[in-house]
Amino acid sequence: MSYIVATFYKFIFFSEYAEKKSSLFKYCQDHSIKGTILLSQEGINGTIAGTSENVHKIVDYLKKDVRFIDLEVKYSMSSYLPFKRIKVRLKREIVTLGISEIYPEQQVGTYVDPEEWNNILENEEIPVIDTRNIYEIAIGTFKGAINPQTHFFREFPSYIKNNLNPEKHKKVAMFCTGGIRCEKASSYLLKKGFKEVFHLKGGILNYLKNISESQSLWEGECFVFDERVAVKHKLEKGNYKMCTGCGYPIADAYSLSNYSTKSISCPHCSFNLSTKEIL
């Protein structure tokens, strides 16, 4: 049996977000949906999985609210349910930057369609920043992209402060998994005085879905926050597993048999990372 994985988000002023938690949770439970949905005053962010029929019922349910009628949803397939349960959580931010007064629903950078993204990557005058975290970048990124060496998205403002100058860097581009981090990051850069900020529309997932491997400038696989661990072109399941000790993505080809304790399951465990810390 195949399942649908749906990823979606939208920045919008959502004052009564807490009131929606119980009804949304129950509707997902009633339709055997698994995954995580975050609700915040700044909007919604979720990845869910289930049968095609039930996932589309959830999307239709969300779109009954006129504020989410244009909710963009990215779909991919999985041969198994990549989540164990459904979680609907209330958060301060739907993606944590830790900077107040950033309003992506009011101002974001310029969207670049996947078909035009290679032109950005090949323009030597535009620094292209991977806004994801170090463990995500480790298994794949775009050719020539800058790795800011961040462990958490909230470290991104410090990277910008120490490495980019709006007077010097007239154009800046960025990308992330599905687009949500870039919307917030581009809004932040515009507020800091950067004039032209570009970001990949729909993120890496949209690029891998729409750009053929022969034309692609993507190298490696794309980390995803579910039990598939990573996906490849056409959003097919990748070749990584998740270390049970530290949560780090490990290539299938790597054997964990030499590591026997719960606290040391792979080489990355020596850095004392926990699943809670990196997710």
TrEMBL record:
Transmembrane segments: none annotated. Residues 122-216 form the Rhodanese domain. The keyword Oxidoreductase applies. InterPro entries: Rhodanese-like_dom (IPR001763), Rhodanese-like_dom_sf (IPR036873), TrhO (IPR020936), TRHO_N (IPR040503). It catalyses: uridine(34) in tRNA + AH2 + O2 = 5-hydroxyuridine(34) in tRNA + A + H2O. NCBIfam families: PRK00142.1-4. This is tRNA uridine(34) hydroxylase.
